[in-house]
Design a protein that fits this description.
The complex is a heterodimer. By secondary structure, chain A is mostly beta strands. Chain A has no helices and eleven strands. Chain A has strands spanning 4-7, 10-14, 19-25, 29-37, 44-49, 55-58, 61-65, 71-76, 85-93, 99-101, 105-110. In chain A, strand 4 (29-37) and strand 5 form a beta hairpin. The N and C termini of chain A lie far apart (41 Å). Chain B has strands at 5-7, 10-13, 19-24, 31-37, 44-50, 53-56, 65-68, 75-79, 88-95, 107-108, 112-116. In chain B, the strands form two sheets. In chain B, strands 2, 4, 5, 6, 9, 10 and 11 form a seven-stranded mixed sheet that branches. The chains are: A mainly beta, B mainly beta. Chains A and B meet through strand 4, strand 5 and strand 9 of A and strand 5 and strand 10 of B.
Chain lengths: 111, 117
């Protein structure tokens, strides 16, 4: 199955700044999903990207799926303390329903 | 709408003891997943059910782990005997077929945090 890598593992951000986390797959994906897990919580679905080059926005969050459908990014603008948590990407192969999760990017915010 | 329910939320046991986790998925969700999440890692699939059928248990360590979903609703995951390395969070998730096609959205429960001493 595919392996999904995320970088960076940790992101410490000043409140109000922007940052980006990246997700890379060893194989072409049929789709990619992003989840957020708050400290002590469980993963919560954020968004799914399906099309090559697709870009979706949710308020201050911008998600992008690469042209080759092997990578994705999450960009957060004007970071707030509510953005604290771990962001996971999860990808599924072309003939595989199974989601492979990355190790996540853990975000902390300093006020 | 109630989310995925799991119990217990926390469990501390001694090694070699058995332990069981219970999951009640979102009403109407035919697909149920059990994941294991180690500290600092993403969830790893253990088993997937479509109704009462285990359609993918390739990642389940069958020497000590077992699962069932007898009536296609609630599910139980069991470990017997537990080992120190089994300490982790066990997450249950459920989903239903996507109307628009594509990957199903998985809804996770709060998880059971297991500590094996």
């Amino acid at each position: 199955g595919q392996q999904v890598m995320q970088i960076p593992q940790y992101q410490h951000v000043q409140e109000g700044e922007d940052f980006t986390t990246y997700c890379n797959s060893s194989t072409t994906l049929s789709n990619i999903q992003w989840y957020k897990q708050r400290p002590g919580g469980h993963p919560v679905f954020l968004i799914q990207l399906v099309k090559s080059g697709e870009v979706k926005k949710q308020k201050r969050l911008t998600f992008q799926f690469g042209e080759a459908k092997k990578n994705s990014s999450l960009h957060i603008t004007a970071t707030q303390t509510t953005d604290v948590g771990t962001y996971f990407c999860a990808g599924a192969g072309s003939n595989d329903y199974k989601l492979s999760f990355g190790a996540g990017t853990t975000v902390t915010v300093r006020a | 709408e109630a989310g995925v329910v799991q119990s217990p939320r926390y469990k501390i046991i001694e090694k070699k003891q058995p332990v069981a986790f219970w999951c009640n998925p979102i009403s109407g969700h035919n697909t149920l997943y059990w994941y294991l999440q180690n500290l600092g890692q993403g969830p790893e699939l253990l088993i997937r059910y479509e109704n009462e059928e285990a359609v993918d248990d390739s990642q389940l360590p069958k020497d000590r782990f077992s699962a069932e979903r007898l009536k296609g609703v609630d599910s139980t995951l069991k470990i017997q005997p537990a080992e120190l390395g089994d300490s982790a969070v066990y997450l249950c998730a459920s989903s239903q077929p996507s109307v628009a096609g594509g990957q199903e959205t998985q809804y996770f429960g709060p998880g059971t945090r297991l500590l094996v001493l």
